[in-house]
Amino acid sequence: MTRPVRRALLSVSDKAGLVDFAGALHAMGVQLISTGGTARALRAADFPVMDVAEITGSPEILDGRVKTLHPRIHAALLADTANPDHLSTLAGLGMEPIDLLVVNLYPFEATVASSTSFQQCIETIDIGGPAMIRAAAKNHGSVAVIVDPDDYSVLLAEMRANSAVLSSDTKKKLAAKAFSRTAAYDAAISNWLEQFATEEMPDYFVEGGRKRTALRYGENPHQRAAYYADGQEHWRQVQGKELSYNNINDMDAAWQCVLEFKDEPACVIVKHANPCGVAVASTQLEAYSRALACDPTSAYGGIVAFNQDIEEAAVEEVLKIFTEVLIAPGAAQRALGRISTKPNLRLIFAGLRPRAGSLLAKQAMGGLLVQSADDLVLKREGLKTVTKRPPRPSEMEDMIFAFTVAKHVKSNAIIFAKDLATVGIGAGQMSRLDSTRIATLKAAEAARQLGLSGSLALNSVVASDAFFPFPDALLAAIEAGATAVIQPGGSIRDEEIIAAADQAGIAMVFTNIRHFRH
Length: 518
Known about the structure:
Shape: elongated
CATH topology of the largest domain: Rossmann fold
CATH superfamily of the largest domain: Methylglyoxal synthase-like domain
Strand content: 15-25%
Number of domains: 3
Structural class: alpha/beta
CATH architecture of the largest domain: 3-Layer(aba) Sandwich
Number of strands: 21
Distance between the termini: 57 Å
Strand order of the largest sheet: 8-13-12-11-9-10
Mean pLDDT: 90
Largest sheet: 6 strands, mixed
């Protein structure tokens, strides 16, 4: 017969719901065992509590670093209550099993997010908590383990309905969650320490996070999906409909791109994870208007990101077309008022940049491909003019802008830009020539929609995320109206490419930096 819950060990950092939960256990006749601050909170609520030290016979030592790391605690958690020999061993030592473990861990992730003190972060690495959680989760046939206050009500409901007995399915489910929690916790610690250890790729790579949002589906309706994150609040939703998998994916693309620009107002409009318009200007309204002008057709139903708090004037323009998500560090009060008139518009406040040196991973071939983030910043002093004509100062500014945008456009990427705004973007094609043709068509169509003759690419610069393997794409860009080109260089045909640029009288700059984005 399954043993009812008779003894519970509670040791929690997050005390939300603790008193009510412990009170319900006490009312069902469960003996409460606890430590430190948890025991004090329970006693303050007038519940009888047995200190862990009464079981171990040892006081807390080393400033609380050692209190539950004791054979008498772990034996009580690891004893298989269906095994007579285990029960006999416990009885011979004057011990009883623990049937329920309630532990949530020191807030390491939150401490890392808010503190720059190395030692403070070290002190919030929990040792005894994970050890107990793993012991109880291993022995889930005999012990229920809770690591999340959200599970209190579910567990109490089952205990009340079944005379304090928990089903094996419930305990198995809780054990799986417990191991996931300790794995995510260890991943956070490992990734934090890795930045101090070496610049090389680590021998072991781990990722972890808690489910923050259940999503209706993934990229397509037949795919399951959820959003997971560590303990840091990278962003929050202020208003609007629930987010989809594709919304969050596009939000990330827009946010990473707009954060490239710091000093002046910038706007990025993203559709299907590619920028369809980017601009930097003296005002936020101008930045949005010029980003939109690059490709107003694709911008419909897109993601709009600003690098500064949203202003009312910009919002008035944004609200003129259907926008899925608006993302920025914050918003002026009057802007918030206008946004609230569109209750379905998702408004996101974000602000946390990824930690320098963070690693990115994606699944491939049954494993993980892991790389450092592409956080390289293009420096003017690293550029090399390779043509007879050097770029004019305005061309150089536009080339640096365009090459920065190219980092965030799927390969093969071609970006036409003029006056710190994109005027044509070609993305994700198998041929660089095809990307150039698409960017050229976009620039001509953008001019038509503005009521202009010709193309916005006239007298523009062009950026390529990788070298030109043949002159054809370069010649197509020149024909479209480009007067200067920025590219990594490194092709075996570089001399031929440079000669074509010289013959056309344009300027060309090599970066020796490639920005593939697959």
